[in-house]
Design a protein that fits this description.
Length: 178
């Protein structure tokens, strides 16, 4: 292979990798749940809501749980809330619980809730929530980040980036039929 052909090939591969990286960075990456086997750390957590009432995540044991890490300043996070609310209304009777864990402070979340309604609990983790999402595979600590846990607490799906209804329905379908 000539030097020009090798150079052209290397540039093409580099551009392909850059485009692929940009695509998945924009779309979000669905992370394999195989590396996550237990949510014991998550169930041991207690978070306040914006009013200060404490919520134990262990209260949701036995349910399928969709945990969405978000922040008031995160545009894709805010855009997800209406879809997550619709799905909570639809799947709630099928033993599915959505929970929003805000990587923000209580005052910001309280102010946010005056403008935007969520049909699921919005809890406050503050900056410490970043450590929790890193423990579940979001090594960058980026938002939004979503976990789907089955009834026994095994993480079945994770998503870095904006999640949509179609993805969630695809993940929930086999879990609610069990």
């Amino acid at each position: 292979m000539s030097r020009l052909a090798r150079t052209t090939l290397m540039i093409s591969l580099g551009l392909g990798a850059a485009v692929t990286g940009a695509y998945f960075g924009w779309r979000g990456i669905e992370v394999s749940a195989a590396s996550h086997t237990s949510a014991t750390a998550l169930f041991s957590q207690t978070f306040p809501d914006a009013a200060g009432t404490q919520h134990m995540l262990a209260d949701y044991r036995g349910k399928i749980i969709v945990v969405n890490f978000w922040a008031t300043w995160c545009t894709p996070c805010v855009e997800e809330i209406p879809e997550l609310s619709r799905l909570q209304a639809e799947y709630g009777a099928r033993n599915v619980q959505f929970v929003g864990i805000g990587i923000d402070n209580a005052a910001n979340i309280a102010e946010f809730q005056k403008k935007v309604h969520a049909d699921y609990p919005l809890l406050v983790a503050g900056a410490n929530g970043s450590d929790l999402i890193r423990a579940f595979g979001d090594t960058a600590g980026a938002l939004p980040y979503t976990l789907v846990l089955d009834r026994v607490g095994t993480v079945r799906a994770t998503k870095l980036g904006k999640v949509d209804e179609a993805e969630l329905r695809r993940w929930l379908a086999p879990l609610v039929s069990q």
